[in-house]
Amino acid sequence: MTRFVTLEVADGVGTIRLDRPKMNALDVAMQDQLREVADEAAARAEVRAVVVYGGERVFAAGADIKEMQAMSYTDMVARGGALQDAFTAVARIPKPVVAAITGYALGGGCELALCADVRIAADNAKLGQPEIMLGLIPGAGGTQRLPRLVGPSKAKDLIFTGRMVDAEEALRIGLVDQVVPAEEVYPTALAWAGRLAAGPAWALRAAKEAIDRGLESDLDTGLAIERAHFAGLFATEDRETGMRSFVEEGPGKAKFA
C-alpha cells in the first residue's frame, strides 16, 4: 500500500508528514495510516514531541469528496467510528503536538489541526469547515473541538456558513496561536516541539491529560484529575530532577532525561 502518512524522528521530535498529492485529501487509506502513525508516535519513547505537517503548499484540503460521494448511509455508519478514531488518535498522543499549517486546512484538514495542542499557521493559510456546502456537518470532531477552542458562537458562524478564514482572523479568534511567513512555519513548529522535547516528559504528559480530561468534565472532577496527576508526579524522576536542580542551581536550569 502506498504510504501517504509517515513518521520521521530527529532529536526527540517526531514529524507526522502528510503527503498525498496534490492537496492531501484525507481518504480512507490516509485516515487509517494517520491512526497507525499517531499510535506509533505515542508509543515510541524517543518521540517526546510531535509536529503534524502537510508540506510547503498545503496542510490538508479536506476529505476525498469523490470517495465520499460514492458512500451510502450504511457505509458511513460503518466508517464513521474509524474516521473519528483516526483523529482522536492524534488528539490523544500523550506528548506535546503542534500543527504546522501551510495553505489550506479545510474540513478534515481543519479538524486535524484542532487535534493539536498548538497551531502555527503561515500568513497565507486558509482555514474552515465547509462541510455545510456539501449538505453535511463536520464528522471528524469539528462540531466538538472547534467550539471548545473558539467558543460556540464563533464555531457556529464558521460551521453554519462554511466560510474560510485567513490567518489574521484565525489568530484573532483563537483558531491558531501564531502566524509566521510561510517558509518559517515548519522551522517554527520544530523549534516549539524541540524545546518541549527537552522537557520533563512525564510532567508534560500529566499536564496535557489533566487539561484535556478536565475540559471534558465538571470543575470538581477536573480538580480531582489534577490532584491525582500532581501527586503521581512525586513518584517520577522528573520531579526529583526538577526539584534538585531548583534547590542546587536555582530556577529554570534543570536538564531532564
Textual characterization of the structure:
With 257 residues, the protein is of the alpha/beta class. Helix content is 50%, strand content 15%. It has eleven helices and nine strands. It has helices at 28-43, 65-69, 73-91, 108-114, 142-150, 152-161, 167-173, 185-197, 201-215, 219-232, 237-249; strands at 5-10, 13-18, 49-53, 97-101, 104-106, 118-122, 126-128, 164-166, 178-180. It has a six-stranded mixed beta sheet with strand order 1-2-3-4-6-9, with helices on both faces. A three-stranded mixed beta sheet has the order 5-7-8. Strand 1 (5-10) and strand 2 form a beta hairpin. It is globular.
Give a nutshell description of this structure.
The protein is of the alpha/beta class and about 260 residues long.
Question: What attributes does this structure have?
Answer:
globular, alpha/beta, three-stranded mixed sheet
Span of the ends, CA to CA:
37 Å
Shape: globular
**How much strand?**
15-25%
* Poorly predicted ranges: none
How do the strands of the widest beta sheet line up side by side? 1-2-3-4-6-9
Radius of gyration: 19 Å
Q: Level of helix content? A: 40-55%
Query: What composes the largest sheet?
Result: 6 strands, mixed
Structure annotation, total helices: 11
Average pLDDT level: 97
Instruction: Decide which structural class fits the backbone.
Output: alpha/beta
- The beta-strand count equals 9
| Helix and strand element order | EEHEHHEEHEEHHEHEHHHH
Question: What layout of secondary structure does this protein have?
Answer:
Blueprint: E1 5-10, E2 13-18, H1 28-43, E3 49-53, H2 65-69, H3 73-91, E4 97-101, E5 104-106, H4 108-114, E6 118-122, E7 126-128, H5 142-150, H6 152-161, E8 164-166, H7 167-173, E9 178-180, H8 185-197, H9 201-215, H10 219-232, H11 237-249
Parallel strand pairs: 2-3, 3-4, 4-6, 5-7, 6-9
Antiparallel strand pairs: 1-2, 7-8
Helix pairs in contact: 1-3, 4-5, 5-6, 9-10
